[in-house]
Amino acid sequence: MWIRGFSFWIKGCFLLALVSIISGLEPELGFTRVVFQTKYGDIEFGFYPTVASKTVDHIFKLVRLGGYNTNHFFRVDKGFVAQVADVANERSTPVNEEQRREAVKTVVGEFSEVKHVRGILSMGRYDDPDSASSSFSILLGDAPHLDGKYAIFGKVTKGDEMLTKLE
Fold first, then answer.
1. Which residues, at least 6 apart from 97, have a Cβ–Cβ distance to it below 8 Å?
2. Which of 26, 86, 79 has its CA nearest to residue 50?
3. Torsion of CA 23, 107, 97, 43, to 10 degrees
């Protein structure tokens, strides 16, 4: 019985993936959520491990190490982005050696067909497409000019009203 259910689940996942590709639907979020606590309230993030697996793993490791604790938004452009500061160099309190080691690692650019729209999480980087490390942006509006150029790895699942306050 379990095998049959598992087989059905696999076929269902394949069908869902195929429908998503054909119709251009948003990819499925993984189960893990991360909550950023801000002075305006909490913002919950969901992640796209099937879209940017290396980026998601990197962000999870930084979160587990406490790398984003005492961090801040160093840039907020109304209707565009709220950008989280680089963990290694711009955090409010010093990082320990393990946090620094992980924060300076770069992640290969995992570009996708997912669109840069309000609530999307998108990695910051330099000119090199494989230079993303720990800074990322929360989109505060649609930004089609970023599509295919920056790695999208998740989206806001709760707390959109906090983004409005942040703006």
1. none
2. 26
3. -20
The model scores a pTM over 0.85: no
Q: Are strands 120-123 and 136-139 parallel, antiparallel or unpaired?
A: antiparallel
Which residue type sits at 82? A
Paired tokens of 51: 């879209």
Cα–Cα distance measured from residue 125 to residue 133, given in angstroms and rounded to the nearest whole number: 7
CA dihedral 123, 127, 130, 135 (to 10 degrees): -30
Residues 6+ apart with CB under 8 A from 95: 67, 87, 88, 103
The identity of residue 50, as a single letter, is T
Token readout for 82 is 């709220």
pLDDT digits (tens, 9 = 90+) for 4-60: 333 333 444 444 444 444 445 689 999 999 999 988 999 999 999 999 999 999 999
- Give the chain's radius of gyration (CA, Å): 17
